[in-house]
Amino acid sequence: MTDAVKTHCPYCALQCGMEISPELAIKPRTDIPANASGALCQKGWTAGELLTNGERLTTPLLHGEPAEWDVALDYVASRLSAIRAEHGPDAVAVFGGGGLTNEKAYTLGKFARVALGTSQIDYNGRFCMSSAAAASIKAFGMDRGMPFPITDLAEADIVLLAGGNVAETMPPFVRHLSGPRMIVIDPRRSQTAKLAWLHLQPTPGTDLALALGLLHMLIAEELVDEEYVAARTTGFDEVRTSLASWWPERVERITGVPVYRMRQAVRAMAAAGKAYILTGRGAEQHAKGTDTVTAFINLALALGLPGRHGSGYGCVTGQGNGQGGREHGQKADQLPGYRKIDDPAAREYVAGVWGVPAESLPGPGRSAYELLDALGTPEGPKAMLLFGSNPVISAPAAEHIAERIASLDLLVTCDFVMSETAAMADVVFPVTQWAEETGTMTNLEGRVLLRNRAVTPPEGVRSDLDVLAGLAERLGHRLETDPPKVFDELRRASKGGAADYSGITYERITEEKGVFWPCPSTEHPGTPRPFLDSFATPDGRARFVPVQHRPAAEETDEDYPVYLSTGRVLAHYQSGAQTRRIASLVKAAPEPFVEIHPDLAEQLDITAGDVVRVSSRRGEAKAVARISDAIRRDTVFMPFHWEGANRLTNPALDPTSRMPEFKVCAVRVERDS
Amino acid sequence: MRLVVVGNGMAGSRLVSEVRTRDPHMKITIFGAETCQPYNRVLLSNVLAGSSRPEQVRLLDSSWYAAHNVEAAFGSAVAHIDRDTRHVVTEDGRREPYDLLVLATGSDAIVPPIPGVERAIPFRTLDDCERIMHKAEQARRAVVIGGGLLGIEAARGLAGRGLPVTLLHLAGHLMERQLDVEAGEVLGETLAGLGVDIRTGVSTSSVDDDGVRLDDGELIEADLVVLACGVRPITGLAAEAGLEVRRGVVVDDELRTDDPSIFAIGECAEHDGTVYGLVAPAWEQASVAADVITGGKSLYRGSRLVTRLKARSVELAAMGETHLTEEHAEVVRFSHRARGTYRKLVIRDGRLVGAIVLGESDAVGTLTQLFDRGGPVPGDRAGLLFPGLSSATPVADSPTLMPDAAKVCQCNNVTKGQIRACWEAGARDVAGVAAATRATTGCGTCRDAVEGIVSWLCEQEGISV
């Protein structure tokens, strides 16, 4: 009898440690800090069912019919060659995902740049934490979601969580918050807000104004950590002037958050010896998400938090490998090691590792939404290869995106279930998942973890790495398929970059229960808290950046009088392609719903259980009404794990991060007659 | 296109930055009579109260103008508008041509014509503020004349500095334009508790060396006298140029005067019969004017006024038609004078048309937004006045009362009924329940609840045995 295999959960960025027995029983590990107390949520406990449920794809599908691997690969390679020959290399797009292992994300980026020569690669991580990443790079010179171990949080006096609902999205996270008092900013009294000492409930789309108001108040009450600001930052004077127009009473009118509540928050944060500010998608998924996060970082800097042991700013990354997935080249503007693709030195270095001339590497391509929006248009890609993503459900203005995808000459997907997007594909490759393969994941702390293969994949299934290598070979290039070898190459490619993995090995990860990047040599211990001495900016100081609030891209009006915000429920993950196929999770959360305040429901003559039609300028969705005073009167909430919510959302993009405005748009709500 | 702006206060500076955001190339010149860069007048009471330093209320850095290619002529007062040749002429003789001109000249403090009034300091500008603060350092007693918003903020600020203050007000209660009698009285009581001596219904006859003399001859001793008797639009330049002026410079919905090449915004402008004395309308006007000036289509339809007092330990918001009575509207009121709490809703045709919220309350944010948006008022008026009152109680704390279907563990979707079943199958502690149901293994916050249910079931067992 073989022993249980140590691995990690297939879902969120917490990457809880778990063991899988040969009988596929799941047991939490106690040696991984994220869930060291032996915690798992229902998604984690039931993850074994992913491996056995009957909806598994096990044979390639060519135009819906089972096909031999070689036949399908030959077909795709020849179609890709033909499309490239006719329209040029940028006619082929590659779309990745934040759930892919580092090895896959890296190989995907290399495949696109080397085998296809296309600039048109991006991924769904753009919809995840790209705003926080952009803001962190501006402020700190580097984006490592949480630049501290998660266990540090427990020692804090206060944690302010702006737009995050960890009690539903990553429940074991809450265990690290049992010590500190929590301040939660959320338009809903979410499960997390219910645990808070103070809940600020702003109008959707006004978090930026709120952050400016809080900092204005901190300055007015002379609670700024002047010593820290002088020693460790630049740019405060300009920010202070920019805040003069954001006095609390004005902010109250915009946000609906009472001034005295803001004052409570500010005083508590300033009085805390150790404090953290964390942002989640609620603050980030806006057409001004980068500026919103910047405003919260400015607040954190004025309080003297970042780069102090026991305090700091962090982004709560969402997807399983949301952190690692944004570091190694599946992003349109990026090369491995968190290098910029338009940086000549970075191009030269990475091209050297890849054995190709630097000038052969394409430049930056379109961002995720822009890429999807361009599909099948005269200037846009004619073919797309899709890995670990389900944009028909998860992209904003989803109906429009489905039309764009349908207009492609060729859609190829790699998936292990027939997701809504896979169902549209010309070719579907059945691939291995999570416990059937080995690979590294970088969790929300920046800790690189190892998922070990625990079970033998079903017959007929291959790894995404095999698919990429198979296509590359047919296009005249060779790619590694063995995860440890791919990781070794990734280590070389990332060496010297911001996200330097060169000192990390599978052996070290196993022995040390994960290694924090940057880790520039095998002798280096890794970097749990990268900013203690200095920030990653040229002068080592964190940068205050002035920002100004502006309204949401779409405000309510007579035709669409209610705000819609979207988010998650505990039982489901992302587009639900995995979790909607697990019986106990479906039982826990069987269908899409609309959360409506009793006052709004009364006004609209809607009662609990009614089927409700929600429409926006982009589409329409039906869902069951849930009446709850946890939501603001002017707002309804819908989870996005099912088809529907994202038909409504607004694809207005953040100018810097190109993040769509998932978290606020204007809708009309009616009882479906 | 050459744009000239007269006035570098909150309206003028806002307009310039709004225009520059929309049009990076338009030639812009701004004249300001004051030599300093624009500051936020709203925050002057914080300066007076000592909670902001003067340099913290600047709205734009002095480097902003050069960096944004705006010519700033500060300390240069415009004396004359030559409409025939489209030039403005400054006091020192400079002639500047314009295609479009914006007047943002603001307003002056009203100084009542009483003997000795020159001994008093108006509370209007940053300079005034600094003079008051300077004098307050030596002063033993202060009097503030005027019990409107600014007078109250000044009195509260001075009292907060430890100076005994008397606030004199002509009307029968404070802020009589925004507040009904009871709210005015509750506010007075709150301020009295903070060390401000309130005298309403009094008229001042003179300012003497040793204090302020009332009509009835009484002397209120003071060595610092502050005037907060309201403001008057500055319209001389416009009137001299022959533009239509009533109380303010008359403008249409595009903020244009009767000369289409001249706009007026802020406290010097009169729109639809109203001269606004608050910042929010001035900024709304600046935004509309900037749209129009840069070729956009935008109309100003008036502003809804929300008055928010900025005085430490006094929370007051007042909006709209607070004086309406039951005869003309539905009035919902709650008063608890002993705690300084007063809340009033004025509802007409199902819309919130006025409200007063005095004392700390979560109601203020919701009410302000309901008033601003003009949306329908929910049937549950009490829920508006007392947010949280109607909140659903969390899963009943008592295991006895909790229905079997109640979800106890969110993370693993475990109900009380499942825990009971588990107990019936032999589990006698949290660990046993967790092993069988996974309850408590997620976020861990339901541990106490599970423990409560298990021990309640055990007690029940004890009773039945």
Automatic annotation (TrEMBL), chain A:
It comes from the Bacteria. PANTHER family: NADH-QUINONE OXIDOREDUCTASE SUBUNIT G, RESPIRATORY NITRATE REDUCTASE. CDD domains: MopB_CT_Fdh-Nap-like (cd00508). GO terms for cellular component: membrane. It comes from Nonomuraea polychroma. The lineage of its organism: Bacteria, Bacillati, Actinomycetota, Actinomycetes, Streptosporangiales. This is Assimilatory nitrate reductase catalytic subunit. Its cofactor is Mo-bis(molybdopterin guanine dinucleotide); [4Fe-4S] cluster. Gene3D superfamilies: 2.40.40.20, 3.40.50.740, ADC-like domains, Dimethylsulfoxide Reductase, domain 2. One of its GO terms (molecular function) is metal ion binding. GO terms for biological process: respiratory electron transport chain. Residues 2-53 form the 4Fe-4S Mo/W bis-MGD-type domain. InterPro entries: Asp_de-COase-like_dom_sf, MoPterin_dinucl-bd_dom, Mopterin_OxRdtase, Mopterin_OxRdtase_4Fe-4S_dom, Prok_molybdopt-oxidoreductase.
Automatic annotation (TrEMBL), chain B:
The keyword Flavoprotein applies. It comes from the Bacteria. Its cofactor is FAD. Residues 408-454 form the BFD-like [2Fe-2S]-binding domain. Keywords: FAD, Flavoprotein. GO terms for molecular function: oxidoreductase activity. Residues 306-369 form the NADH-rubredoxin oxidoreductase C-terminal domain. The keyword Magnesium does not apply. Residues 2-286 form the FAD/NAD(P)-binding domain. This is Assimilatory nitrate reductase electron transfer subunit. It comes from Nonomuraea polychroma.
